[in-house]
């Protein structure tokens, strides 16, 4: 059932040739400090310390970019001297000491069986909304989290100077802005991209209906995003897509990149590389992540490299498309899936591998690419979305969706040690020079202060 918008005016749709837009607030090639997140690297605040509420409707600590974003942004903001409270639905993030976590429980139906929900839980209107939506193939968590977050924050508004929402884009968040509270929202990229790729890749009509049903929350997100005053995103490519797909005026969008924790993702010179192991981090059953492209490229290389093995930081859905493709290509004995890995585990896997691959058809930023560069491993990446501007000369780039080009690039890195060494050195230098959470946090604080001044 579609969401109805009582007592709300329709969004103002902004039209322009978005390919000609310019977002000058941040240039990824600008020189930035090479420090990681440590108290010594913190910049003195440009004003009094802020009390920041940082929101995330779903914040798994070691899988999915949103949990990573909340952990490291909150850590960097705290290192700059600010007081940070993370308000999250389950799964909850893993935060550093000193950052407060407020848990807003939901039914968390993506970690439990739909039929395990008891009558008492269904007596709550928001729990009932989540249950009925999941039963019918929908995804109500952003909407229900927005309702819970609005109620909690309105009751506790005096504790905070600014509210920073991480891509909930729900009416409850808009209500906070309309109540006069300073609200900043991060949109990593519009999920409209995911929807288009998923529909193109699904030939069965009734499955396309299910895909559309699950993505029905996009109507809500478009409506809300077009009315928000302060949106921050992580790349110029994502900014253009937000303006185009969500009808957001460019004047409401600022660009602040993601960072990488170089104390975690770093070269491990004492760990020997396996010349026959390649590695990728990609959501196994999300078409946008391009894993099928990588699997076809990997299959074509196996004839030349009989000992080649692939490590995937992912968890495939049992019986899903990824598992079916692996079986069809006869690759099950050559692939190892690793799930729930800590960042230390992932960094060690990078150190053990000969090359890292980011095969995404589209990325709003591409944090795995930056982490691989920081780990000092040769990187082969697609040019999907923001990956071209993020990777630049820190890796070999191939056209998104081109498995043959990906196979050729991997062949070049695997067969030429000098190329691999050069790529590793250039990627490491780029990660240290251009992507730093302390700088990200400093730019975010400047945006917070602008938002506060305009309220």
3D structure, described in words:
By secondary structure, the protein is of the alpha/beta class. It folds into 2 domains: 18-259 and 437-454, Glycogen Phosphorylase B (Rossmann fold, 3-Layer(aba) Sandwich); 277-434, Rossmann fold (3-Layer(aba) Sandwich). It is built from 17 helices and 13 strands. The strands form 2 sheets. It has a 7-stranded parallel sheet with strand order 3-2-1-4-5-6-7, sandwiched between helices. A 6-stranded parallel sheet has the order 10-9-8-11-12-13, with helices on both faces. Helix 14 (387-391) links the parallel strand 12 (379-382) and strand 13. Helix 1 (65-79) crosses helix 17 (437-454), helix 10 packs parallel to helix 11 and helix 13 crosses helix 16 (417-434). The model is unreliable at 1-45 (pLDDT under 50).
The CATH class of the largest domain, by name, is Alpha Beta
Helix and strand succession? EHEEHHHEHEHHHEHEEHEHEHEHEHEHHH
Report the strand count: 13
What is the CATH architecture assignment of the largest domain? Answer: 3-Layer(aba) Sandwich
Low-pLDDT segments, ≥5 res: 1-45
TL;DR of this structure?
This protein is α/β, with parallel strands linked by helices and 455 residues long. It has helices at residues 65-79, 119-122, 125-135, 141-155, 171-178, 192-200, 205-214, 217-225, 236-246, 291-302, 321-329, 343-352, 367-374, 387-391, 403-415, 417-434, 437-454; strands at residues 51-56, 83-88, 100-103, 162-166, 183-186, 231-233, 253-255, 277-281, 309-313, 335-338, 355-358, 379-382, 396-398.
């Amino acid at each position: 059932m579609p969401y109805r918008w009582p007592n709300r005016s329709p969004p103002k749709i902004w039209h322009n040739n978005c390919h000609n837009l310019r977002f000058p607030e941040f240039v990824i090639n600008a020189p930035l400090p090479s420090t990681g997140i440590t108290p010594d690297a913190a910049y003195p605040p440009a004003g009094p310390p802020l009390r920041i509420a940082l929101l995330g409707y779903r914040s798994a600590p070691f899988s999915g970019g949103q949990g990573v974003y909340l952990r490291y942004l909150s850590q960097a903001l705290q290192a700059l001297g600010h007081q940070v409270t993370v308000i999250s639905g389950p799964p909850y993030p893993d935060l550093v000491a000193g950052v407060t976590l407020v848990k807003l429980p939901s039914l968390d139906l993506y970690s439990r069986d739909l039929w395990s929900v008891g009558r008492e839980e269904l007596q709550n209107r928001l729990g009932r909304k989540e249950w009925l939506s999941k039963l019918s193939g929908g995804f109500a968590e952003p909407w229900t989290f927005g309702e819970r977050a609005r109620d909690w924050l309105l009751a506790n508004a005096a504790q905070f100077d600014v509210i920073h929402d991480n891509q909930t884009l729900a009416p409850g968040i808009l209500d906070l802005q309309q109540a006069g509270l300073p609200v900043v929202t991060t949109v990593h990229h519009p999920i409209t991209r995911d929807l288009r790729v998923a529909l193109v890749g699904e030939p069965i009509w009734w499955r396309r209906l299910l895909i559309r049903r699950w993505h029905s929350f996009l109507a809500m997100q478009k409506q809300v995003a077009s009315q928000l005053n302060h949106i921050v995103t992580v790349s110029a490519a994502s900014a253009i897509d937000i303006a185009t797909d969500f009808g957001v005026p460019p004047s409401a969008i600022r660009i602040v990149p993601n960072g990488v924790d170089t104390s975690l993702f770093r070269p491990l010179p004492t760990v020997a590389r396996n010349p026959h192991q390649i590695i990728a981090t990609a959501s196994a059953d999300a078409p946008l992540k391009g894993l099928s492209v990588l699997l076809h490229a990997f299959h074509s290389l196996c004839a030349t490299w009989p000992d080649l093995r692939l490590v995937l930081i992912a968890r495939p859905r049992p019986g899903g498309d990824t598992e079916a493709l692996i079986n069809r290509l006869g690759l099950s004995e050559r692939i190892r899936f690793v799930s729930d890995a800590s960042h230390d585990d992932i960094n060690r896997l990078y150190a053990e591998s000969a090359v890292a691959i980011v095969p995404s058809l589209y990325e709003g930023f591409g944090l795995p690419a930056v982490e691989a560069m920081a780990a000092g491993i040769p990187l082969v990446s697609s040019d999907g979305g923001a990956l071209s501007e993020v990777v630049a000369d820190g890796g070999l780039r191939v056209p998104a969706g081109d498995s043959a080009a990906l196979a050729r690039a991997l062949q070049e890195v695997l067969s030429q040690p000098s190329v691999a060494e050069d790529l590793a050195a250039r990627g490491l230098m780029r990660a240290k020079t251009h992507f730093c959470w302390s700088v990200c946090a400093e730019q975010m604080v400047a945006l917070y202060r602008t938002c506060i001044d305009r309220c």
